[in-house]
Design a protein that fits this description.
Blueprint: E1 4-7, E2 20-24, H1 26-34, E3 38-46, E4 49-57, H2 78-84, E5 107-111, E6 126-130, H3 131-137, H4 142-145, E7 159-162, E8 165-168
Parallel strand pairs: 1-4
Antiparallel strand pairs: 1-2, 3-4, 5-6, 7-8
This protein binds zinc ion (ZN).
């Protein structure tokens, strides 16, 4: 699959001049278009589908929106992990809550690599999990437990917020 270039607001399609922020996958690009975070500015045909090859953000990305730029991490807490994961269990995809309708959906934070096996409490080793999945996984890795992650955890210092949505960013944007 080709990579899609993501430009800051202000891309000029006639000259191709714009501020290139990063590249992303076609799948992620469609997600950004659907959430109206970005619009396609360049399209191509691929396997009889029209796919974007370049996007332009619908709102300008400025330094103010770069979370934790220049810092190693942003305000780390279990609550922040849930916020990042949109209160969604990384294993079953169900919504978790601190006051769930049933105990199985109680919001817990899972160490992907268990603490007992040297796993750290870091952004990239923690995900939201429902109590049921957390108990089932126990002291095993996702592979051992046969419970693949539905999304990859990331450090919010490597992300930016556009129109209220947090987007993964493979590279740091200089503020
Ligand atoms: Zn779950």
């Amino acid at each position: 699959m080709p990579q899609v270039r993501v430009y800051n607001l202000g891309y000029d399609p006639d000259t191709g001049i714009g501020e290139l922020l990063h590249t992303t996958t076609v799948r992620h690009a469609f997600g950004m278009i659907r959430r109206e975070v970005a619009i396609p500015v360049e399209l191509t045909m691929l396997d009889e589908r029209i796919v974007p090859t370049a996007l332009e953000l619908t709102r300008e990305l400025s330094g103010a929106w770069v979370e934790g730029a220049g810092r190693r991490s942003v305000g780390f807490s279990f609550r922040a992990v849930h916020e990042r994961d949109h209160w969604t269990c990384a294993y079953c995809g169900r919504s978790v809550s601190r006051t769930p309708a049933c105990e199985a959906l109680l919001a817990t934070v899972d160490h992907i690599q268990p603490v007992s096996r040297g796993g750290m409490s870091s952004w990239t080793n923690l995900v939201s999990a429902c109590k049921e999945c957390n108990n089932r996984k126990a002291d095993r890795t996702p592979v051992e437990a046969g419970m693949p992650l539905r999304f990859e955890p990331y450090d919010p210092a490597l992300s930016y917020r556009v129109g209220g949505h947090v987007e993964d960013l493979p590279i740091l944007v200089s503020a």
